[in-house]
Amino acid sequence: MESLSFDLSQTALREVNQFLHGADLASKVSKVSITQPDGKHAIAAGLNADVEVEIDGHAGYYAAGMNQLARVTITGSAGTGVAENMMSGSVHVKGFASNAAGATAQGGLLVIDGDAGLRCGISLKGADIVVGGSVGSFSAFMAQAGNLVILGDAGEALGDSIYEARIFVRGKVKSLGADCEEKTMGDAEKKILADLLARAGHKDVSVDSFKLYGSARTLYNFHVDNAGAY
Amino acid sequence: MSDNKSIPQTQPRFSATFDPYTMSEIRRAAATGIYDIRGGGAKRKLPHFDDLLFLGASVSRYPLEGYREKCGTDVVLGTRFAKKPIHLKTPVTIAGMSFGALSAQAKEALGRGASQVGTSTTTGDGGMTPEERGQSKILVYQYLPSRYGMNPNDLRRADAIEVVVGQGAKPGGGGMLLGQKISPRVAKMRCLPEGIDQRSACRHPDWTGPDDLEIKIQELREITDWEKPIYVKVGATRPYFDVALAVKAGADVVVLDGMQGGTAATQEVFIEHVGIPILAAIRPAVQALQDLGLHRKVQLIVSGGIRNGADVAKALALGADAVAIGTAALIALGDNDPHLEEEYRKLGTTAGAYDDWHEGRDPAGITTQDPELSKRLDPVKAGRRLANYLSVMTMEAQVIARACGKSHLLNLEPEDLVALTVEAAAMARVPLAGTSWVPGQQGY
Fold it and tell me: Cβ of B441: how many Cβ atoms within 10 Å?
């Protein structure tokens, strides 16, 4: 299988993305390297093939947005909305990630080695996110399904209006959002966490050092006595 | 001496301020402790297209022969950047309405009716259903803040993408779908537990402001290889600035929805008190496009209370390229039909006033997820009714355009219009009928 490299200082992004969207891509190439990304937006967005893509440097907004099947690595940091609405595959950010990392993602695994900004995992719909560092405020806002693992600290209003997603935090939580509460971590949750830590390269970290947060489910149906929470 | 019986009595007099409806709402609020939620758009009397009239041809203008001389109705949307613009045979499109808010049968009927006359339908919150894609030859895929059911495969299957920033019934507000309508299929599509009240976010999760929107639109174009027209939909509030910013962000088409535009469900107070009528919004929007040199290059679709061909013609004369209908399309399918009066009475309402769409008990089988009620709507027959209605609207607009001497609906212009009220003259920026006075212009 062939490896290919595109230099974004020489080749237009549109051309690179159209190549990556080509029919039967996975049968033609196994790895695509993208050099000189220089913070360009929407690099490797909309992939739908089981290929490996390496972005060698820093990516702008929406890197690997809506990813399906592909395994994308960003050696630097990523801008807003990395792996937003990912469906499957994986995205690994070796640096830091900006706001809304993994927003609305429905499947696949997003690994961020450094910190993530505000609203990490906002409206998460089934994907898994593992953050090696800390996350900013309003993370997992209205998160519906999936898992957000935070090895560092979480900012304010964590899990505000959360539905059925799970949040695992190893460090401190500045504050919990409306309808988010600490839960007892059972064996099933410990297994999920251990598996995610291993897949994200943190297999030596003990699951017992985490706390689990989820929905108190008091806001699922409107009741006037909860009006203050809306 | 006369007794009290012989003294003439005054009629019982209701307060204009505390009218019977207002008092009933106070009693309802006092009893329940929750705001009133309903579907539809603003019901109050508003300045509207009825306040405008066309000046037909006479000695000073030359009309076209009805039934003989051609009056074009086709419109192309998305000519700015998209490789594959949308070609419509009529400028009347179907507005975004979700599966969830509507039954699968209703969505299918909308697709059938629209496709028969060569126009587009639009998805809504909750994603694209196979029924809808299957029956809609031209389907616009809404990209909403909630991203419920958002799927890149559907994005690629769509003919155009509409980034929804807001809607006329509730500009600045998110959606809601109450638990009664979160059926197993709706819950699965939206990745939510069954039976809960679903709240949709009012802001997109991964962009804030026009600079971010520009990058978001770039991402959508990259993912779809620059093929699909990208629409941006806004509720009518500050149309000049919102349209200018949408254009700056790279929109191919701007959709502008006035406060008469319907919603599946939101607070009555929101529907009636936030946003502006579509009549007041079109000219500032067109002005923004003209100031940018992009009028007719970035197309403008307007919606909110469009009912007939006269409304279509008036919207186009004011500078829109197309219109969208929602409430009117549901009425054509069978919503609020008098033949269901007995059932509407059981729901505490009457045909024509039923607006508790969020409760999912629609006897017409349109705004419901109840399998038994949904089955009442025959998508083929309802689609035929919609197609008939769309054809009538198009022909009516042609009648007016020919009378004004126009060989295409898009040749209608503000000069063809006058206003019946000072308010409408000011909003539409056309003269008060019989005068040359346009309020707010030339220092008056």
Answer: 11
Class level of CATH domain A37-218: mainly beta
Partner B, chain A 63-122, Cβ-Cβ below 8 Å = 65-66, 68, 80-81, 84-85, 87, 99-100, 103-104, 106, 119, 122
In DSSP notation, A127-161 reads EEEEESS-B-TTTTTT--EEEEEESS-B-TTBTTT
Extents of the domains making up chain A: 37-218
SS3 B31: helix
Q: How many residues are given for chain A?
A: 230
Q: Which residues of A touch B196 (CB under 8 A)?
A: 163, 220-221
pTM of the prediction?
0.95
ipTM of the complex: 0.95
In a domain? residue B92: yes
Residue B186, number of CB atoms within 10 A of its CB: 23
Cβ-based burial of A43 (10 A; exposed 0-12, middle 13-18, buried ≥19): buried
A21:B32 CB<8 A: no
Put simply, the answer to whether A66 touches B152 (Cβ < 8 Å) is yes
Q: How many domains does chain B divide into?
A: 1
Interface contacts A/B by beta carbons within 8 Å: 107
Rounded CA Rg of chain A: 18
Residue B273 belongs to some domain of the structure: yes
For residue B382, the enclosing domain spans: 47-428
Answer yes or no: are the C-beta atoms of A80 and A61 closer than 8 Å: yes
Cα–chain center distance at B218: 26
In a domain, B173, yes or no: yes
When scoring A144, A162, A218, A225 by the number of chain B Cβ atoms within 10 A, the one with the most, hence best to mutate, is A144
Containing H/E element for A218? Answer: none
In a structure prediction context, what are the per-residue pLDDT tens digits for chain B, which is 444 residues long?
Answer: 556 778 999 999 999 999 999 999 999 999 988 889 999 999 999 999 999 999 999 888 889 987 779 999 999 999 999 999 999 999 999 999 999 899 999 999 999 999 999 999 999 988 898 888 999 999 999 999 999 999 999 999 999 999 999 999 999 998 777 777 788 888 888 888 888 887 788 999 999 999 999 999 999 999 999 999 999 999 999 999 999 999 999 999 999 999 999 999 999 999 999 999 999 999 999 999 999 999 999 999 999 999 999 999 999 999 999 999 999 999 999 999 999 999 999 999 999 999 999 899 999 999 999 999 999 999 999 999 999 999 999 999 999 999 999 999 999 999 999 999 999 999 999 999 999 999 988 887
Does B39 reside within a domain?
Answer: no
Number of H helices, E strands in chain B: 15, 16
Task: Assign residue B174 the CATH number of its domain.
Answer: 3.20.20.70
